Amino acid sequence: MPVRIIPRLDIKGPNLVKGIQLEGLRILGRPETFARHYYEQGADELLYMDIVASLYDRASILNIVERTSRETHIPLTVGGGLRTVEDIRAVLGAGADKVAINTAALKRPALIQEAVTRFGSSTIVISIEAKLRPDGTYEAYVESGRERTHLDACEWARRAVELGAGEIMVTSIDREGTGRGFDLGLLRTLADELPVPVIASGGAGGVDDVRRAIEDGHADAVCVAGVLHYDLLTRLERESRVEAARGNPLGSKRPFQRLAPASMPEIKRHLLDHGGSCRV
Questions:
Q1: Pairing assessment for the beta strands 46-50 and 124-132 based on DSSP bridges
Q2: pTM, two decimal places
Q3: What are the backbone dihedrals phi and psi of residue 69, each rounded to the nearest 5 degrees, phi first?
Q4: Is 273 noted as a catalytic residue in this protein?
Q5: CA 279 to CA 63: how far, in whole Å?
Q6: 10, 32, 50, 167: which one is catalytic?
Q7: Which of 185, 236, 269, 277 falls between 20 and 30 A from 147, CA-CA?
Q8: Residue 40: count of CB within 10 angstroms of its CB
């Protein structure tokens, strides 16, 4: 099966943002501009994560989803603050194809069964934010990495699949936004054991990290954020179009130090050059 490359767009209010370990957010621009560009460049899917949805009015993300779904024709997954079946229905009604659930599913696992019954397992992605413990195990966190659960992340992933989840997306809090690469051990543990696709998220610093998530981490799909975002901002800067794309003068077009920005075609070309399988 071809591996999917999925741009991850973290949303705060009307803005695309990027942080390190889910904190220290920088405003980068209008998410629809970035999403449309990635669609045109050959992205396999798109992921919108409303990272402060529990604190803000959800109407903002619904409007963004509606606009994006009209302009792109690839699967769109939306997560962040989805607490009930009604929340899921609203996001799907706005144009999303799948939803990613974390906090609500962990606090009330029956939500997974309810959502699968209503919308089908292929629609339900369980998002797991994992942090490495001193003993080498991983703890699941909720609320965009802000709150501990004291639950083992791998055990929770197994339970979520038993309840019907169609995919598992695992984000390493320790690696997210750092450009240090994915947590390959965590990925491999889940991908080798779970009978559903595992999506890698958190840590890509360049094209080689994407390849290693697939080859060494055995991921079925890879989310990429800053590597793509800063490549696009650099291109727009050369064309003197950064302000139009950013939509906010507080945005920063300088990448984090460890990132080696790359475009979607460059990522896929690298995978193909190393014997990988992806859609072109």
A1: unpaired
A2: 0.92
A3: -65, -25
A4: no
A5: 29
A6: 10
A7: 185
A8: 11
